[in-house]
Amino acid sequence: MSLCCWLILVAFIPMTLGTNPGVKVKLTEKGLEYGRQLGMALIQKKLKTIKVPDISGEESVSPIGKVTYSLSNMQIEDVGLPKSALDLVSKTGVRLSIGNAYISLRGNWRVRYLHIIKDSGSFDLNVNGLTISTSIAIKSDETGRPAVSTANCAATVGSVSIKFHGGASWLYNLFKNFIDKALQNALQKQICSLVPDAVSDLNPTLKTLNVVAQVDQYAEIEYSMVSSPTVSNSSIDLSLKGEFYNIGKHEEPPFSPAAFSLPPQINNMLYIGMSTFTANSAAFVYNRAGALSLYITDDMIPQSSPIRLNTRTFGTFIPQIAKRFPGLMMKLLVKTVKTPFITFNPNNTTVQATGTVTAYAIQPNTTLSPLFVLNLETSVSAQVFISGMRLAGAVTLNKMDLTLGTSYVGEFKVTSLNNILQMVLKVVVIPKLNVQLAKGYPLPTIGKMKLVDTQLQVLKDYMMIGTDVQFSG
């Protein structure tokens, strides 16, 4: 992994201009510094692969006349990059600069002069004061994933110091100057061909981006750009779609994301803002998929509970049930009738859900006889947390209101069922829901990415994740 790992965050791909994002990402200077540290190892490794071509030529050297020379079999021994910087250029992009670098190499030399005299040996070469400067461009490839490349590159070799071994020492000084110049030119060309290669080597890793990430059998979430990155002197800010869809069917919900902004932050490398639009698009998808429904039978009620799902228990509150359907087990169907609505307020996440509870008596031949339909209004509070590379949650019941929708057994007081329905929600429905919520949904990732020292805040209309990041492998 390298500094360019961070550039994934600058190119989350296909752009749909003019749409507010559901998710915002802020990459800080601290994050770029971590990327720079990782990147230097990659650049250093790449520079060690420099293949300096054999150099040969002919020069007139006083007083012996023409000297034919060649330098061959040049191999890099060491590369040092003691000083480097990765800078944000407002409204432009990212600039990488390396200074005071050095390269050491070894090779063989051979000369011929006066047409018949030959000499040869080996040499050590030290290149000092090497500077490299390049601008990094980010674009979308043909698959809709990010690709990085160098927009320009400049390399300057400060000085070249060569030490010859073997042969006549008086001869070295005669052709040392023009060999120094030839080596200097050759190295400058090689360096500025390898730096783009080092940046491009990241592209296979960028192709691992989960631009569309599957959540479960019902849903996937899309992380694509809705506008170009905003580059300031202190951060790179990204606007991502952050929208849930049914798998295989991308249907837009009847609501749109509202604008929101992440506040300035400097403590962590990365900040991710998730708006209520993202959460509500999930609710829309699961409701459309019919996933927000649950059949409840007596075996799902704890054995210790005195309340059972049978006509005897319900007959205590609604006598006509016991009279018309004596000694039968019952089944409840709890389902939403419209998309739940999620709100974010400081330190508070609330879900409002409207649904129905339909009660059935189970006949001996397994036929279901409807008893009544209740309208159900519930409010739950959610706790949201990070689990690995996923955003997960758990809910608790705040309140519940019941009204009678349809009765097939005559009139009765709905309030008499409050305790039963509250128990069913608390011990069956909500635990089942929390099992699913604990699985979470994936955050945008590349490669072997790990979140470190993560904090989550719920704010007005969005939640914000502040985190450091580590890459391995």
Helices and strands: which structural class? Answer: alpha+beta
Distance between the termini: 7 Å
Total beta strands? 23
Please state the average pLDDT score: 86
Identify the overall geometry: rod-shaped
CATH-level-2 architecture of the largest domain:
Super Roll
Radius of gyration: 35 Å
Supply the number of helical segments.
Answer: 7
Element order: H for helix, E for strand = EHEEEEEEEHHEEEEEEHEHHEEEEEHEEE
Classify the helix fraction into a percent range. 10-25%
Strand content: over 45%
Q: Note the main sheet.
A: 7 strands, antiparallel
* CATH topology (level 3) name of the largest domain: Bactericidal permeability-increasing protein, domain 2
Uncertain spans: 1-18
When the domains are counted, the total is: 2
CATH-defined superfamily of the largest domain: Bactericidal permeability-increasing protein, domain 2
CATH structural class of the largest domain: Alpha Beta
SSE map:
Elements: E1 23-28, H1 29-47, E2 55-61, E3 65-80, E4 83-89, E5 93-113, E6 117-140, E7 146-156, E8 159-165, H2 169-200, H3 203-206, E9 212-214, E10 219-222, E11 230-231, E12 235-240, E13 243-246, E14 270-275, H4 276-288, E15 293-297, H5 311-317, H6 319-324, E16 329-336, E17 341-345, E18 348-362, E19 368-387, E20 390-407, H7 418-439, E21 441-442, E22 449-459, E23 462-471
Antiparallel strand pairs: 1-12, 1-14, 2-3, 3-5, 4-5, 5-6, 6-7, 6-8, 9-10, 10-13, 11-12, 14-23, 15-16, 16-18, 17-18, 18-19, 19-20, 20-21, 22-23
Helix pairs in contact: 1-2
Task: Explain what the structure shows.
There is one protein chain. The protein is an alpha+beta fold and 473 residues long. It folds into two domains: 30-206, Bactericidal permeability-increasing protein, domain 1 (Super Roll); 212-471, Super Roll (Bactericidal permeability-increasing protein, domain 2), CATH 3.15.20.10. Helix content is 22%, strand content 46%. It has helices at 29-47, 169-200, 203-206, 276-288, 311-317, 319-324, 418-439, and strands at residues 23-28, 55-61, 65-80, 83-89, 93-113, 117-140, 146-156, 159-165, 212-214, 219-222, 230-231, 235-240, 243-246, 270-275, 293-297, 329-336, 341-345, 348-362, 368-387, 390-407, 441-442, 449-459, 462-471. The strands form four sheets. Strands 2, 3, 4, 5, 6, 7 and 8 form a seven-stranded antiparallel beta sheet that branches. Strands 15, 16, 17, 18, 19, 20 and 21 form a seven-stranded antiparallel beta sheet that branches. A hairpin with a 2-residue loop joins strand 19 and strand 20. It is rod-shaped. The termini are close together. Residues 1-18 have low confidence and may be disordered.
